[in-house]
Amino acid sequence: MRIGIVCPYSWDVPGGVQFHIRDLAEYFIRLGHEVSVLAPADDDTPLPPYVVSAGRAVPVPYNGSVARLNFGFLSAARVRRWLHDGAFDVVHIHEPTSPSLGLLTCWAARGPMVATFHTSNPRSKAMIAAYAILQAALEKISARIAVSEYARRTLVEHLGGDAVVIPNGVDVDFFAKAEPNPEWQGDTIGFIGRIDEPRKGLPVLMKALPKILAARPRARLLVAGRGDEKEAVAGLPAELRSRVEFLGMISDEDKARFLRSLDLYVAPNTGGESFGIILVEAMSAGAPVLASDLDAFAQVLDGGAAGELFANEDADALAEAAVRLLEDPERRAELRERGSAHVRRFDWSTVGADILSVYETVTAGSAAVAADDTPDGDGWGSGLRARLGLARD
Questions:
Q1: 65/238 Cα distance (integer angstroms)
Q2: Is 359 helix (H, G, I), strand (E, B) or coil?
Q3: What is the pTM of this model?
Q4: pLDDT in tens, 63-115
Q5: Cα(301)–Cα(317) distance, integer angstroms
């Protein structure tokens, strides 16, 4: 199968969506499919052979963060050329409502299209106002995927229609088989994320740290990610700042080793999360997980059975739970065991097969649209809806 995948965010500024697209593309390539990914990227950036640059991206505030997007006449021309040259059997667009390549592709493409929605946020006036612009493009989509029930809810509330829920995927064995780094072991707490993005929650963890260190003086916090390190520790007492070690950006291999080395992984994110891929990666590596009780995180952690939850933005609750877990190796071992078993449902062997099934359904269904799949107002036909296991709300 010839598969075209559209990435909305800059390939050279890594994030969860980019990692998902990269791993999905490489999974399909291993299966023998022909895959091309169109993504924003500087033209001089080294790219994998399956990635085509759509030109430089610009930073735009989006969903409580800053996304690097690509939109304009030059981008539209590159989209059309990519579609022409690719002659794809199916085009898979990620975040088609963002002002980037996905929307341009919706406008330009013909034939079977699948869209994945990653975002979870409240109903907004901006989305309501944009609906008239988006509607014509979204009606061309053959099938919709949401990475979680919360991303699906956002889609339904903002745009109507429905989606099949297929979570983000992880190569579980890649993390499970990583070798721990002795330098990162020994009463270590870990955090991975953009340091200066408040919704990733590092300020909440920093606020909790003095109470954690008062109970566990030998503990350390290891932080991986880009951002202003001095600003991150500015609120800590000077004598505690040495207990925080910044690793900067780390490779995928080092991320796996990092997660394998920890006594506790903390995800203090405060909002805007529709899934929680880092939780899946941490569980895959066997790290006990402590996370804020966001709905999406609670779902990934099986309601708290595969990892513990604390009240969102409550630094005292975070500190209390972290100390309790650090002092209870049996409980941490239990979380490792439960997390390792639970995370198998997110392995690419399952997730990739589910996505491929959607591709096969829409490519087969495109030939039968006239017979039983006439669009019914929300971009779905009755036959396609039945084949994907979707019922009307």
A1: 29
A2: helix
A3: 0.83
A4: 555 555 555 677 888 899 999 999 999 999 999 887 788 888 988 999 999 99
A5: 18
